[in-house]
């Protein structure tokens, strides 16, 4: 599979990361996502990482960069579904998901984004 | 990755299939999904297959079986995001997604499931 699907829900976009990220896939995702934010006039992006057991510096940077791109296009990014072990590793490795908000799950993430709209 | 994440949205569950299915992954998904339907008291299941370029008889049967299991647990299943080429192939191969409703995208699928609730 060469693309990560982007699902639209109202004025939000949902991306579920399930596969190991590599350079090209990350770039394709960023291209697709920025295009979709503009096309769908999205105000928020939810990135679900519940399937990821490991978030290394590459994925962390990819998520931060994606959030930065979304922000320029006036969309907020929320990372949802982070596993406890991933949170521990991020802190232990000193990795920061800069410019990214987090929420426990998709529902909480949607609420967070909708609050920001009000 | 050994699991396909199941996302909860209200009383609906969303599954995005992005990776090649094999026996064990399909069984894990069915176990997880039936458990989640009961735990979350879900009334509907959305299966997004927009990332799939090919739906063969194995995946078709897996989707039908999953829908049948969900139905016994009183949850309706809607397949969303089918690519045009997949629809063509399904018909040409004579594969039927029995017991499964389809919708163009997640939003339409949510509307379809909510109509059934009313």
From TrEMBL, chains A, B:
Domain of life: Bacteria
Pfam families: STAS
All copies of domain STAS, residue ranges: 1-113
PROSITE patterns hit by this protein: STAS (PS50801)
SUPFAM superfamilies from the UniProt entry: SpoIIaa-like
Protein name: RsbT antagonist protein RsbS
